[in-house]
Amino acid sequence: MEIQNQGTAAISTGIEWGNVIINNTTTAQAIGNAAAFANVDGDFTVRSTNNQEYRLMSNQPLSHKWQGNLTIESGILV
Fold this sequence. Notes:
By secondary structure, the chain is an all-beta fold. 0% of the residues lie in helices and 33% in strands.
């Protein structure tokens, strides 16, 4: 699944993902996803965040389970 130019809306939680690519080339502010990617059964790749933060969670003490590789090609992952 490639997510392109997500905007500011968070993605729903509770989904089990395969491979995920984040490719936000036009976003103008940080994006928070409230732990939407807690379960990824493949690789998680950040291709671009347009120099904005891509936040995996906001104030939740939550762990992430990724079965594959974490790759950051360009961008800010927090």
